[in-house]
Amino acid sequence: MRLGIQAVTTLIQNANFKGFFTGKIYTGASKKVCVPGLNCYSCPGALGACPVGSLQSFLSGLKFRFPYYVLGILLFVGALLGRIVCGFLCPFGFLQDLLYLIPFYKKNQFLLDKYLRYLKYAVLAVLVIILPLCLPLTPTFCKYVCPSGTIAGIISYFTQPIIRSQMGKLFSWKLIVLGIIIVSGLIVYRPFCKYLCPLGAFYGFFNRFALVRMHLDEGKCVHCSACTKACKMNIDPSRKPNSMECIRCGDCVRACPKSALHIGVKNK
What we know:
The structure is a single chain. The protein contains 16 helices and two strands. By secondary structure, the chain is an all-alpha fold. It folds into two domains: about 1-205, no CATH class; about 210-268, Alpha-Beta Plaits (2-Layer Sandwich), CATH 3.30.70.3270. Strands 1-2 form a two-stranded antiparallel ribbon. Helix 3 (about 50-60) packs parallel to helix 8 (about 120-135), helix 6 crosses helix 12 and helix 8 (about 120-135) packs across helix 14 (about 200-205). The two termini are about 20 Å apart.
C-alpha cells in the first residue's frame, strides 16, 4: 500500500509528462509552490519547486532575502507531518525503496551506521545554509550533491543537445555521487535518507512534536523486539517511537503482535 501511495504522489509531483519528451522545464503557476519532498525544480516533469533548491536560491542571492515563504512551508509541513514526508511523499525516497527491493547483497547494519547519521545535519547546516550565505550564487547542495538534480540532468542530457554540449567535470562528479548512492541503495536501506538528506534532517526535528506522529501504548508492549527487527531504519520503536530517524513507514506497526504502536493524531 505504501509503495502505491508513493508512486501516486511521485506521479502527481511530476505530471508534466510532455516535459520528459521535450526536455523543457515547466514554468506554470504551480512552480511557485514548494513540494514537501526532494524533487528537483529542473526535472522536466516537475510541477512544483524543491524546498531545498528554493531555500538556497534565497540564501545565495546577490541581495539577501529572508526565505519567509519557503521556511514557512517547511515549518508547516514539519509541524503537521514530521518525517511522514520521507516515508510517503518524497520521490527520491520512493526511488530508494524500489532499489532496495532488487535482489542483492544486503548489509543494513554496520559499525559506522550510527556515526554517519550525523552527517545529514552537517549537510543541512553547512551545504544548505552556511555556504550559500557566504558564497553568492552558489547553491552548494544542489550544485555538488543533490542526486535528484543529477537525475534531472540525465533526462536533459538525452533530450536537449545544447545542454549535453555544456556538461563537464561538475556533472561527471555528480554522476559519481549518484552512482555511489544507487549502489549503496542496493545494499543499505535508504542510504541518502539516513546519511545525507537535509530535508530528512530538518523534518526529523519535528517527529516528537508533529500533529501526526507515532504513539506507543506501553501497557500493551511486551518488549518482544518484533518492531525493532522489522525496522529498516535501525531504530527501536518500543524505546523511541518518535526517533528523529523514523520515516513513519509503518513496518513496526504491522509487525507488532500486540498492536501497541499506532501512527496518527491521537493514541488509540
